[in-house]
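Query form — protein Nitrogenase molybdenum-iron protein beta chain

QUESTION: What is the three-dimensional structure of this chain?
INPUT:
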Amino acid sequence: MPQNADKVIDHEMLFREPEYQALFKNKKENFEFNHADAKVQEIRDWTKSKDYLEKNFARDSLVVNPAKACQPLGAVYVANGFAKTLSFVHGSQGCVAYYRSHFSRHFKEPTSCVSSSMTEDAAVFGGLNNMIDGLANTYNLYKPDMIAVSTTCMAEVIGDDLDAFIKNAKQKGSVPAEFDVPFAHTPAFVGSHITGYDNALLGVLKHFWDGKAGTTEPLTRVPGESINFIGGFDGFVVGNMKEVRRIFDLFGVDYTLLCDPSEVWNTATDGEFRMYAGGTTKEEVEKALNAKATIVFQEYCSEKTIKYLKEKGQEVVVLNCPVGVAGTDRFIMAISELTGKPVPAQLEKERGQLVDAMADSQAHLHGKRFALYGDPDQMLGLTEFLLELGAEPAHVLSTNGTEDWAKKVQALFDSSPYGTGCKAYPKRDLWHMRSLLNVEPVDFLIGNTYGKYLERDTNTPLVRMVFPIFDRHHYHRYPTWGYDGAMRTLIMLLDEFFETLDANTIIPGKTDYSYDIIR
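ANSWER: The structure tokens for Nitrogenase molybdenum-iron protein beta chain are given below.
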């Protein structure tokens, strides 16, 4: 083999060595028994046709590569947003390994989460003993201030009662009776990660505001002047929460960020391991009941929580991932109207700088066609920003989007001449997107890391703006919300445009007539 201590070959080049090529050739010829190359190409070409697109969109009982994750992933996200809180997933160990690795690969930071390690016997008899032992181990080994419990498919199919299980575990001495263990049922076979986020956040709020599962008296709301903020499930949370804090601080208002995992996924390397960092404290959660209002950035990520907040008597301002000028304007004006404070001069200046940058670059993005996929709120924000830039968001797809979401996207299309002919696709997956890119091609694709296969298959350049992003580093450290976030988003769109233009004009004497120094 070519790999040895004296000649360490990088992964990129290692498998191009003759020894590996011979292995691949032997495997293909003697073990795979594939169809003939011509037949494979024939089928591949057919899957790019309009005939196949029609058949593809007619399917109603099969999902191929959905652009979403399952509920417990959103619940683990929420647990990481509260101070010294450990996520406890009642289910199999393999599921929890997926949640941890998913976040760790995106944020490039360790993500703590434990499991009740349910196996075959628990699947038959229930997981009470797993809960009793698991909570005891979690409490004694990792010393959290709070344990947030959620579920996987296995526990939900059995029908395990989390409320009863947690109370039984406390009676058995797994954790002290007064120890906080909020919970949420998050069945992975329905909904998506945004549903899990909503259920888990609601579980935390109900725990503290409604009497800790009937063990204490419910809190009484005493209306004050503070403002709550809920960001929703956000892959750019490290940069975005910093930007949200900065905006609130510029206004000089009293505010509480409900669920803020930005610090736990942005810890320093200084010789000290931090399992817990930052997050909303329990005292802040209790105080949040008295807020004058709550601003929610993701309507479809917080539907149950929004309803609950309104029932508690709070005014709720619901937005959809503000990206760009108009979206940020709504956020800024909401703070101003709720607090009676004028818009800070610094934010007015940043708005003007963003508009100037958009004017400087609009000629390059004007008329360019985009396809984009991701969570419903993020798609609304990005669609609005593309229209502001004079681009055409031709295909906007959301696997966890609803028909109501599609109507809101259509309203955005109708509000701009650049939305003519554009269409929203709720409850569709990335195999549907592949058909769209082949039959109705666009200039650019906006999505997550999994879009790189669509990029290769359809030759559509990919802009990575959607969770998860595994194959690029540190995007999550920069904001996408606010005027500064819109500036960052604009730069990412422009960078991909210019990289593609350079790649298409790079051959000397043939295509380099536009291989320019100045763009």
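ADDITIONAL NOTE: The radius of gyration is 25 Å.
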